[in-house]
Fold:
Amino acid sequence: MTKKGVLLVVSGPSGAGKGTVIRDAMERDKSFYYSVSATTRAPRAGEIDRVNYHFVTRERFEEFIRDGAVVEHTEYSQNYYGTLRSETEGKCDDGFNVILEIEVDGASQIKKKFPEAVSVMILPPDFKTLENRLRSRGTNTEEDIKRRLDRAREEMKFYGDYDYLIVNYDNEVRAAADELISIVKCEHMRTLRNPDFPAEFFNLNNN
Structure:
């Protein structure tokens, strides 16, 4: 099977539990490499620069855009989010399965630039669950919650553009993480990713 890693795009509305699912998968499968995105938003309590995000100023991020230092970017809730080129280059060639946790806008950009990328959308079981999760954080204003819910409705319309769908049920994060791991394992076995395998294994070139 191919030793080259998979470029994995993971999206989903705020409150879907993307980060929790990804963390659980990474704890059990060391082949994953998490691409730390850059953002202009302020850090939340407990977040660490260069671990959760590269926290930069708006001016700095716009420099990244001009210099081509980001491979995708979008603006959400009046803040920039984007993937640094330095976070992705060479990692798949080194055998890592690179996870890009990005918005639907950025996912579309990645699929155009890297057609071999695999896209996964993580969704809650229903809209009420999503709203409950956002409210239970206790860190968002009512206006912000409404904006995130409106955004979620728009994001969910694009789920058909993704290769895979994972539903993250309450108290079943491990199951969702298992599905993410399984997707990557299956992708490694696709014939398109192993075009030379029969020739090499069965010595077909020496007939």
Notes: The CA atoms of residues 80 and 180 lie 27 Å apart. Residues 7-35+88-196 form a domain with the Rossmann fold fold (CATH 3.40.50.300). The mean pLDDT is 92. The two ends are 22 Å apart (CA to CA).
